[in-house]
Amino acid sequence: MRNQGSLPAGGGATYRSNTYTSLLPWQVRERRFQPSRLGRRGLDPDEVYAFLDRVAADMMALHAEITKQRQENLRIKVALRRWQSEQAEGGRR
Fold first, then answer.
1. How far from chain centre, in Å, is Cα 57?
2. Contact 29, 53 (CB under 8 A)
3. pLDDT for 26-69, tens place per residue?
C-alpha cells in the first residue's frame, strides 16, 4: 500500500500519467510500515528502514545531479542565445 501522506505542490515530474506524482526522497525516508500481525512472518523493520534510507539517499543524489544538469543546460542556452544575437547584429552592419 502506498503512503497516503500529503504531497508538496509540484511533487516532481510526472512521467507515467497525469495522476501519478513522482516519489520524493523524503517520502521514502519517512515511509513507515504496519507491524505484521501475530503469528505471521514479517520483515525486519530495521532492515527495511535501512534500505529505505539508502534509496532516499540515492534519490537525493539523482535529484541533485538533475538540478545541476538543468542549471548547466540553462547556462549553455543563455550563452548560445547571446552568441546568436551577437552574430545577427554583426551581420546587419
1. 11
2. yes
3. 888 887 777 777 666 788 888 888 888 888 888 889 999 999 99
Tell me what percent of the chain is helix, strand and coil, each rounded to the nearest 5.
Answer: 60, 0, 40
Task: Output the furthest CA–CA distance in the chain (Å, rounded).
Answer: 86
Q: Which set of grid coordinates corresponds to residue 17?
A: 500519467
Is residue 19 within 8 A of residue 32, CB to CB? The reply is no
Give the Cα-Cα-Cα angle 67, 69, 72 (nearest 5 degrees).
Answer: 110
Burial letters 30-68, b for 16+ CB under 10 A, else e: ebeeeeeeeeeeeeeeeeeeeebeeebeebeeeeeeeee
pTM, entire model: 0.55
DSSP H helical segments within 6-44, as ranges?
25-30
Backbone angles phi, psi at 38, to 5 degrees: -55, 140
